[in-house]
Each structure stands twice: as structure tokens, then as C-alpha cells.
Design a protein that fits this description.
The protein is α/β, with parallel strands linked by helices and about 525 residues long. The chain is about 40% helix and about 15% strand. The N and C termini lie far apart (about 70 Å).
Length: about 525
């Protein structure tokens, strides 16, 4: 029988509860994750916290569908914002938009919060809504093909390593010649030229590209365009530093990417997220460890990022995760099991929240054992504990302020203070209309780029041929015959017969374009463009 402490009127803590309470009682700013579960019930006297300053040590939120991952994400995101960190979340299923709306109070919610040692208040952080290329509700996010880079483009086009290498040569050529690739039609035009009779020799000095490989890339590009993904590429190009904005009172702004329009294109979604991280890595200065990180980035459906990924892609993911924390950015991956994340990436994730997993098959049982092995040694048999967790419960370990992992705590996760229901269309529309970013990014711009430049050059060359023919026609039969031959040669390379870019003028234009348009574009992680 447990007796009460005479000084506090509360039951004294068990040795395990005392150890957990001491391990998670951090001195600095902290996020409250919930209360330790003991004897099947949460103990409100034993808080499980996460140091704000350790958010840049990255994290993992895992568990089977329906076990509470999204709500844990919401709990961490809203508290991080109120602590002063900017936050990025992706709303894959449409159930995170409620983070922009204060949660409705109820007796049941108040009782649930009290059982977890939580003083619940109804509030929401300032929220910006974004969409990919304007597909759906939100400020459009676009980037240029050149900025996106060959490695990420290969990922969304589902190319193999040989095809990826060839695409890299195409980007290299465009960069060296100062040829702007703003949207997909620019990339298509350049590939067509480099595999034409006039252009195929341009890449011989650096390896060349076979017609068969070019054909595969073009077919993949066609399918990609047909899916509607082409709207993501173009201008105005989004500046990733816009994600670091804060409200006037210092509260971090939550950037919520609405993704219902790309739910059928998971490769685009996951690769786009990696592009944003690469942009942040390249643009942000080194700041080391901050009391409050600049940005906490939640990477939902993380398994999609690594599916069928090339070695070059995985290497760059590992490098980004390892180094971006020194830029003041923390990344949380959300997926079903830790085995969805490559080992080199998983090793960088110091904060772990593992919801329930089910073991219905031998493969499930194997995954469960692997998951349990990723946690610090515990007096609990995690292989038994993890499947028995209820909805909203998880096993937790975080990085302490000293940089060491805390003991495993079976935790009842606290309730979000924002709404757990999706925000209404009116709320989202009003937020988008009021956004100061809408004016800058709301309307697409199609300025002159490779496609238009090459088309104009080809047209000018055709006119010059016609003028030369007319002039030669009046100077004698021999000259007329020569002009006629020139005319036939020119017409044989027009758009009607062989394609717009199969024109001899294009070759000379591309050779001189580097001098006219600028120097080679420098590239960093994933081959993304580095701004000078």
C-alpha cells in the first residue's frame, strides 16, 4: 500500500518514477511531451520533457497507423513555435491544418490533460499555408529546374544510376553554357537538341549521352508532366529562408504545406522536402547550438524519401542531416518503423518517440525486435511493451542538455492545444489572402529562358536563309541553284520535319551562350544550385 508524503500530500514516487522525473527535469527551456505511465496509468507528477535546445539533434516519431504519430507531431510543433522556433510541417492527409485554430475546450479534454500534468489552454500559433505550385489552397511554392538540380530531378523521374549520370551531364552542359533551365519545357528542349544530329557531339568530350538513355529520360519527363507536377517548376522561385519567419511577439510561424494535390505523387513530395533542406543548408550561416533553434522541420511519410533512392542521393541525405544542425535546424522524421530510415540517418536522430507497433507476421516480429534494439537499455522488455501501447502512448528517449540519451520512459502524450480537427476552407482561404507572401509568389511568371531563346534563334536563322536565297536568285542560275540547295538544307531541319531544335544555328548559339549569359552555375548538395 502506498502512503502519502506528509509535506506535499502526494504519494511518494517509486524508484523508477524518481529516476525518470530527475532525468527529464531539464533546467532550460523545454517542451512537455506528457507524463510517465506507471501501473497502466499516467502519473501527472512525473513529467517527460524535451529540451528546446536539443531540438536540433533531430528526432524520430514512429508507430503504426492510428497510434497517435500525427498528434505527437502537433504537440511538439505547436510548443516549438511558442518557444520561438519557426516550424515546417507537411499536411499529407489534411488533418494537420487545425494547428492554425485554437482547440475547443471540453470536460473530457480537461480531465485528460490533468492526468498528464498538463495545464491545458486553447491556443494556436500563427500559421502560413503553402501549396506545391499552387495545387490546392496555399501560397504557391515553385523552384526552377536549374535550382532543383540533377540528383533530385533523377529521383522524381525515377531514373537509374546510369540515367542519373547522363542527366547530370545535361545539367552540366546547360550550366557551362549559361543556358537557363526554368521549367520542364526548357529541359526537354535541351535534351532534344543534345541528341539531334547537330547537337550530339556537344557532350562527347565529357562522356556523351546515348539516344536510348535520352529516350528514357524524355518518356519519364512526359509522364511526370502528364501527372500535373510540371506546375511546381517555374518562377517566381521560392526562397527557403521564408520558412524562418517569426511573428512580432517572437512566436515562431508554422509553415503548413497542404498536399492533397500531390498525394498520388509521393516521389515529388518527399524529394521536394529534401530540396528545401538542401536550400536551407546552403543558404544559412553556421550558428552552432542555439537556445532556441531557427527551424524545426517535420518530414512526414519519411519512408518515401528513401524508396528506390540512388547511392548518390542517400549520401547527400546523410550529409545534410549530419551537418544541418549546426545551421540551427532540427529535423524530425515521421514514419512507421525505424527500419524505414537508413542506419546512417537513424544514427543522427537523438530524440525518439515510438508509438505502438503490431506484430502479425514474422516480418513484423523482426521489425519489432529491431525497433526495440534502437533504444537505450531499459528494465522494460520493449519487445513486449511496444505492441501493448495504447493510442496516444509511446516510449520516449531524448537528448539531455548534456548531450546524453535519457532513460526510456513509457509516456502518455499530452493533448494538443490547437484543434485536432482540420481547419475549415474559410480559415485557410483567409490565412492565404492575408499572407504577405501571396503578392510575391501568388502569380506564376514565364520569362524568357532556354525554350524561348532557342526558338527565337532558330526562327532568325530561317529568316536569314530565306534572305540569302532571295539575294542569290537574282545573280545567276548557279548561285540560284546553290541557294536552292541551302534552302532545302535549312528546311530539312525545321520544326515540321525534325523538331524545332534540330537547327544548325542552335549549335553555334549554344557554343557562344556561355560568353553571353554568364559563367557556369556552382552546385552544392544534390546538385542544387548555389546562389552567389
Amino acid at each position: 500500500m502506498t502512503t502519502q508524503d506528509e509535506g506535499t500530500g502526494q504519494a511518494p514516487l517509486s524508484p523508477e518514477a524518481s529516476a525518470v522525473s530527475a532525468a527529464y527535469a531539464f533546467e532550460g527551456g523545454r517542451l512537455h511531451l506528457g507524463a510517465m505511465v506507471e501501473g497502466g496509468e499516467p502519473n501527472p507528477a512525473v513529467a517527460v520533457n524535451l529540451p528546446v535546445g536539443m531540438l536540433n539533434r533531430h528526432g524520430l516519431i514512429a508507430g503504426a497507423t492510428g497510434t497517435g504519430k500525427t498528434r505527437t507531431l502537433q504537440v511538439i510543433a505547436e510548443q516549438a513555435a511558442h518557444a520561438g522556433a519557426s516550424v515546417f510541417v507537411a499536411d499529407m492527409k489534411g488533418d494537420l491544418s487545425g494547428i492554425a485554430v485554437p482547440g475547443p475546450a471540453s470536460d473530457a479534454l480537461t480531465a485528460r490533460a490533468a492526468a498528464r500534468g498538463q495545464e491545458w489552454v486553447s491556443r494556436a500559433a500563427p500559421t502560413e499555408f503553402f501549396s506545391l505550385g499552387g495545387q490546392g489552397e496555399g501560397v504557391p511554392i515553385r523552384t526552377t529546374v536549374s535550382d532543383f538540380g540533377p540528383v533530385l530531378m533523377s529521383k522524381v523521374l525515377e531514373l537509374n544510376e546510369t540515367q542519373e549520370s547522363s542527366l547530370g551531364l545535361i545539367f552540366h552542359y546547360a550550366d557551362a553554357q549559361g543556358l537557363a533551365l526554368l521549367d520542364l519545357k526548357d529541359l526537354r528542349a535541351l535534351i532534344q537538341f543534345l541528341t539531334s544530329d547537330e547537337g550530339k557531339g556537344e557532350l562527347k568530350g565529357i562522356g556523351g549521352i546515348s539516344t536510348a538513355t535520352a529516350g528514357v529520360i524524355l518518356r519519364s519527363l512526359t509522364a511526370f508532366e502528364a501527372s500535373g507536377a510540371d506546375v511546381f517548376f517555374g518562377e517566381p522561385a521560392f526562397e527557403a529562408e521564408q520558412l524562418l519567419r517569426r511573428a512580432e511577439d517572437g512566436t515562431g510561424i508554422i509553415s503548413c504545406l497542404e498536399l492533397p494535390g500531390v498525394a498520388t505523387r509521393p516521389a515529388l513530395f518527399s524529394t521536394f522536402m529534401m530540396w528545401m533542406l538542401a536550400e536551407l543548408y546552403q543558404d544559412l550561416p553556421e550558428v552552432g547550438d542555439l537556445e532556441v533553434p531557427k527551424l524545426v522541420f517535420f518530414f512526414d511519410e519519411a519512408h518515401l524519401l528513401f524508396k528506390d533512392a540512388s547511392k548518390a542521393f542517400l549520401d547527400q541525405v546523410v550529409q545534410t542531416v549530419r551537418l544541418i544542425r549546426s545551421k540551427g535546424v532540427g529535423i524530425f522524421f515521421i514514419t512507421q518503423t525505424p527500419k524505414d530510415i537508413p542506419g546512417d540517418v537513424l544514427a543522427q536522430l537523438g530524440n525518439r518517440v515510438q508509438h505502438a507497433l503490431r506484430a502479425f507476421t514474422p516480418d513484423d516480429a523482426k521489425a519489432l525486435k529491431a525497433t526495440a534494439s534502437t533504444f537505450p537499455t531499459s528494465e522494460h522488455d520493449l519487445v513486449e511493451v511496444i505492441p501493448a501501447l495504447g493510442t496516444g502512448e509511446a516510449i520516449v528517449t531524448v537528448m539531455s542538455e548534456k548531450g546524453a540519451p535519457t532513460p526510456v520512459a513509457i509516456t502518455a502524450i499530452r493533448a494538443p492545444e490547437s484543434s485536432m480537427e482540420p481547419a475549415s476552407g474559410e480559415v485557410i482561404s483567409a490565412a492565404v489572402a492575408a499572407s504577405p507572401l501571396q503578392e510575391a509568389y501568388g502569380t506564376a511568371v514565364d520569362r524568357e529562358s532556354a525554350f524561348e531563346i532557342l526558338a527565337a534563334r532558330a526562327e532568325k536563322e530561317a529568316e536569314e536563309v530565306e534572305q540569302a536565297e532571295a539575294k542569290a536568285a537574282g545573280s545567276g542560275g548557279g548561285a540560284a541553284g546553290s541557294a536552292s540547295a541551302s534552302k532545302r538544307s535549312a528546311r530539312s531541319t525545321t520544326k515540321e520535319d525534325k523538331g524545332l531544335f534540330d537547327n544548325p544555328a542552335v549549335k553555334s548559339f549554344l557554343r557562344s551562350a556561355g560568353t553571353v549569359l554568364g559563367r557556369e552555375i556552382p552546385r552544392g548538395l544534390f546538385g542544387t544550385r548555389r546562389r552567389r
